[in-house]
Structures are given as C-alpha cells and as structure tokens.
Amino acid sequence: MTTAPGQRAPATSPATRAMGWLHTARFLTTAPRLEHLPDLTVPEIAFVGRSNAGKSTCINTLAQTKRLAFASKTPGRTQAINLFALGKQGETDAMLADLPGYGYAAVPKADKERWQQVMANYLVTRENLRGVVMLCDPRHGLTELDDILLDVIRPRVAQGLKLLVLLTKADKLNREEQNKAMSIARLQTAGGELRLFSALKRIGIEETAMVLYDWAHPEQPPEDSREPHLQDAPEGE
Ligand SMILES: Nc1nc2c(ncn2[C@@H]2O[C@H](COP(=O)(O)OP(=O)(O)O)[C@@H](O)[C@H]2O)c(=O)[nH]1
Ligand SMILES: [Mg+2]
Predict the structure, then answer these.
(1) Is 70 in the pocket of ligand 1 (CB under 6 A)?
(2) Which carries the bigger pLDDT value, residue 89 or residue 43?
C-alpha cells in the first residue's frame, strides 16, 4: 500500500508500538539477593506469580522470543531476580523484573521463607518499581501466597503503584468459566486491573503490552493523538 502525495502515512498503532517495544527486551543481569540488584532510575515492571502459573511463557510471549525467560521444566528453580532491559540499544527506558515463582511444594521450607522475604522486600523497597504484573492460573484461583503478596503491595498501589492481574492459560476455560474466574478474581484485586491471558490462543497479549507500555511512558499521549488531525483543526481557525 502506498501513501498518496499530501496524505500522511498511517500512524503506528498503539498495539504495534507496544509489541515492538517489548520485542527489544534483552537480558541485563541476575540478582540472587536484593542487594545485588543495580540501582536504577528507569521504571521497572515486576512479574510475580506462583510457580507454574505461566510467568516465563508470558514474558517470552510479550517479548516475542522463545527463551528470554527460561520456561523451566523444573519449577521452583529460578531463585533469583532476573532483569531484562527494554528500549532501543543505548536508550534503555524500562526494566522487566522476573521474580522467582513461589509456592512450589518441593522447595525446602527454609528456602521458601527466605524467598518470600526477598520478594516482599523487593516489592516494598524497590524505588523504581512502577508496576506489578501478577500471574494466576484461574483453575487454582488466587492462592494464599498471592493474597499475601497483594497485601504487601496494597499500600504502594494506594500510592500509585500499578497492578495488573493476569488470569493465565485462559484457553483452558470455556467462556462461562472465564467469566466466573474474572468475577471471583475481581473481588480480590481491588485497585488493580484484571485480564484474561493465553499464550497458546493469543488472548490478551497486545492489550497487556499496551498496558505495560503506558505504565513505562505515562508522559506520552497515545500515538494516534499526538498530532491534531487536519480536518479537526483547520489552519487559521
Ligand atoms: N494451555 C496453556 N498452557 C500454558 C500457557 N502458558 C503456559 N502454559 C504451560 O504451563 C506450564 C508452566 O509455564 P511456565 O511459563 O514455565 O510457568 P512459570 O513457572 O510461571 O514460569 C508449562 O507447561 C507451559 O507450557 C497458556 O497460555 N496455555
Ligand atoms: Mg518460570
């Protein structure tokens, strides 16, 4: 398709822009403890969720890559915070933080407690934390550990921290089950947004990408509205 002389090229859609941005994701560093995390000023978006909730798959799907976040065959093993940089090379404008999955039964109790503590500390103290994406497999609902984390971040959400709860693997539910899962989860996620997500059936991917883009770029108006349309604002009026 060509653009006739005098016509403006069609603006990139917000979905395309957000997906392009997430596709720039690249591994930055891994931090086994909080004090190993670099101090950063760019907005950071943390992914949290029970082990096996679909967190790695979600991050890889958003970044349109197969192995950015390691989709582990042995859940409970990724006991570190992994940071992925976003934005053009040399112009990093945000971070994705992949937090260790919790609730995996085979992890020794002491390790579990240590990790809950690391995660809670991260969510409470990380200064550049802009938003949290919590992933939840709706067939299990929000678990006790999900609730604990929601309680931990609630004061920050009240002060402007963004929260998005994704009900993952939505392809495994029929429409009625999806609606039911949404209404149950809605009661528990006050102050946050809630969406269905499926990497397999590609549900909610672009919508999620746009939410994250907007979190990281709150100062930017939607691309389509950046310039006034000529017919809306004729010159001389
Ligand atoms: N049906 C379905 N399965 C999924 C989806 N996302 C992840 N899974 C599966 O759920 C399991 C756990 O996924 P993973 O991303 O490793 O979860 P994590 O432990 O939270 O990082 C894997 O077997 C995935 O293939 C999805 O959208 N639909
Ligand atoms: Mg994982």
Answers:
(1) no
(2) 43
